[in-house]
Specification:
By secondary structure, this protein is an alpha+beta fold. The protein folds into two domains: 15-55, no CATH class; 71-171. It is built from five helices and four strands. Helix 3 runs antiparallel to helix 5.
Length: 172
């Protein structure tokens, strides 16, 4: 009669059942590791999984056009003597104009003598106190934009000067 108190020994089966169990355990472990790695990458934004995305799929979105290159028109420097009741001040100004389009650049180059005249007249009208004020250059820039955004003749559209940039601004 067999003894019931003693443990029965497991004998390996001839079909390799222990080896299959080991293979199944390894395969399950590899799958769990792969799922963990994919989930980590997806959460960090390194991996895009369409079935995890809550956003609706979009048809090929149009690519954004690169921003247009700025168009500048440099002017030769201006030197103007400003006279007030009490003093005489020399103003040396280097100006570059930023324009909206190529047509404005061409128009300003075509009418450059008139452009310079308008800027020179605007500079000469400035009171000395305004030129020397902290916001004097900003006020002057606004006045130059206004003067240049007027038509040069009745047949052409006015240029579109968007900004006056001072490359030099010396008051003595």
């Amino acid at each position: 009669m067999p003894d019931t108190d003693t443990a029965t020994a497991v004998t390996p089966t001839p079909d390799g059942g222990g080896f299959l169990r080991l293979l199944k355990t390894l395969f399950a472990s590899l799958i769990l590791i792969a799922i963990g790695v994919l989930a980590t990458l997806a959460l960090q934004g390194e991996l895009s999984l369409p079935f995890l995305s809550s956003a609706a799929p979009t048809a090929s979105a149009p690519a954004k056009a690169p921003p247009a290159e700025p168009i500048f028109v440099p002017l030769e420097p201006f030197t103007v003597t400003l006279r007030d009741q009490n003093a005489s001040v020399a103003l040396y100004v280097g100006i570059t104009l930023k324009v909206a389009d190529e047509a404005s650049r061409t128009l300003l180059r075509t009418y450059m003598p008139e452009v310079r005249d308008r800027v020179l007249r605007t500079l000469a009208r400035q009171p000395t106190a305004d030129i020397q004020a902290a916001d004097g250059s900003a006020l002057l820039a606004t006045q130059i934009v206004t003067a240049l955004n007027q038509a040069f003749d009745t047949e052409t559209a006015p240029p579109q000067v968007t900004q006056v940039l001072f490359t030099a601004y010396v008051v003595q």
